[in-house]
Prior knowledge:
This protein has 136 residues and is an all-alpha fold. Helix content is 89%, strand content 0%. The protein has 1 helix and no strands.
Amino acid sequence: MEDQNAPATKGDLNEAVAQLRSETKGDLNEAVAQLRFETKGDLNEAVAQLRSEMKGDLNEAVAQLRSEMSHGYNDIVERLSDSETKLLGAFYSFAQSNQKRMVEVEGNEAALRSRVGTIESRLLEVEKRLNMPPAA
């Protein structure tokens, strides 16, 4: 048996270094594999959380956009209705003034017909006095 207190030889040292390298390499490979697994798991978890947050933000943005579009649509409908009301009011005003003009024109026409009828009657009386037959 060898004495443990005896000085180590170069071969012993090389053997110890090789064994240490082998053990360290195995531990290092195991740590890297575990780190990769943990990192991949963490990455998947972070991606899932980010997707969930982005989906929530996107749903919120879509809801807000729908609300704004609905508000804009309602504003347009209201303005169109107001414009329609104003146009109908303008047409009714025009129709009323046009109706008044037509009544006035018809009244003037009736007055003119009456005056022409009076003139024709007077002319007929004059022709009768002068014994002139009416011209056709």
